Amino acid sequence: MTIAEADAKQAADRFIDTFNRIRAEISKFIVGQEDIIEQVLLAVVSGGHVLIEGVPGLGKTALVHALSQALHLKFSRIQFTPDLLPADVVGTQVLTDRDGVKDLRFQPGPVFCNVLLADEINRATPKTQSALLETMQEKSVTVAGQTHPLELPFFVLATQNPIEQEGTYPLPEAQLDRFFFKLFVDVPNHKEFALILNRTGGLTRPIVEPVASGEDVLDMEKTLREVPIDDEVQDHLIHIVRATHPTIDGATEQVQKFVRHGASPRAAQAMLAASRGRALLSGRYHVSRDDVNAVAAPALRHRMILSFEGEAEGVRTDDIIQQLIEQLS
Question: Model pTM?
């Protein structure tokens, strides 16, 4: 084994160990949802943001709290409401008076953190939602012509309720594209319900301990970028993303009929990073087609815009993605 191979193996082992420690701490508090926990962590260690959708009471907010505690990072929560202003999110200039000298000073908003919980993000107006665009893409805030960098790592975990749409503002396509993954939280099964009641209905509650730092997360992101991917596997990834566009040769009949716009190159970047992480967790230092296929749905489902026919017939983007994978595999 060469020095480079030994260093790569050591980095991979550190990645797996840290990932599993974080996952174990979160699982102390969150019952079930193993796939959701893994996918959220894959997005976080890839430097991405996550949109989590589910009905109230399924533990979406609790998951984000547990994650911030396990990572020992600065946490902020914004409860999005229709009267929330952009300045309430990013901060604003305030007039100060020191010894008779008046001056404008920047007052940072809650986005100046490491882990931002954007709770019920679709309840805020589009103007306020757009205040997050720069923070999510550039990891900075510009107010009054001055740019303020955010501390890294920084990631947004946003939640939204899919059933209560009155008084909500659907996220625009440009903002949806900034999310690394979109995840659906399902109702727990009977056994998981019992575990939830046992953990939360007693005199003591599970305590999530910090097991990793921000530096650990940044190191894990760097490790992911070094995992090789074969040209054939990367071509398979590109074929999946391009086949989501109805005007591209090779698009399925469903895509041509039910999809108005396909996924962007950001989807391919997300799939590449997540498939690398999945490969490491599977004990491999190379990406396989199965890794790519496994992360396709959470990376693509919110980036595919259905046509009128697709919405009218209630077509699910996950079904279209699955058909794509079957056709290209």
Answer: 0.89
